[in-house]
Amino acid sequence: MNPPSAEQIYAICKTCGECCKRYAISVLPRELAREAKFFKLSEKEFTAIYTRLLVQIVPFSSGQHPLSLHTSMIPQNVWKKLQAAGFSSDYAMILPMVGFKKKEYCVFFDPKTTSCTMHEVKPAQCTLFPFTSVEKNIDYAKAYDFCELSRVEKPTNEIFAAQDAQRVEMRNYFDAVAEKGLSNVWKNIPNAGDIIYNGKIISTITLNELNEWLAAAKNK
Ligand code: SF4
Ligand code: SF4
Q1: Is any atom of ligand 1 closer than 6 Å to the C-beta of 16?
Q2: Is there an atom of ligand 2 within 6 Å of 102 CB?
Q3: Which pTM does this prediction carry?
């Protein structure tokens, strides 16, 4: 018997909304263009209404990369929060993304119908969930025990291929940000948002502050 297709797998999703509640969802420029079109909005309107900055900080080995910097260059108020959250590396990589606004749930989740209001065009990050780990042999039922889908299905080769494609696209996106700058990758950028470390929001950030960090990282 053939393994289930991605469509069959996602038909099993219970639309409980737990993933839409727990995670900060980011989009790529190509995805945002498609989503704005779905809602018959310009990209500028969609960005202003629905998005925020998401700046992920990850430990890094050196200051050699155009998006990495020594942690002494991180403003004290943010650095203290990073340390309190367990960050201990001397260097940090700054990964600027655009994500969806969120209160209790992602702005696109409708609690009345318990469904995504843009299911047809939701980002790959959502389409792939819960099968998003870089580890091939992860026990998804254990790692995401809140998710019914993770308990009843296993990722297929089709899912692994989609994961690989998503990783390549993310890598290309960050390479483009490093080479061309954020404002050349995004036509429209939200003016404020959150800093994320280890999957948790630790602080807010404005676009001006982010641009200062990126300039410091590039010109070090
Ligand atoms: S993917 Fe899992 S957690 Fe998300 S809505 Fe479906 S069943 Fe719920
Ligand atoms: S875009 Fe849709 S599927 Fe993704 S987190 Fe938001 S509501 Fe959930």
Answers
A1: yes
A2: no
A3: 0.91
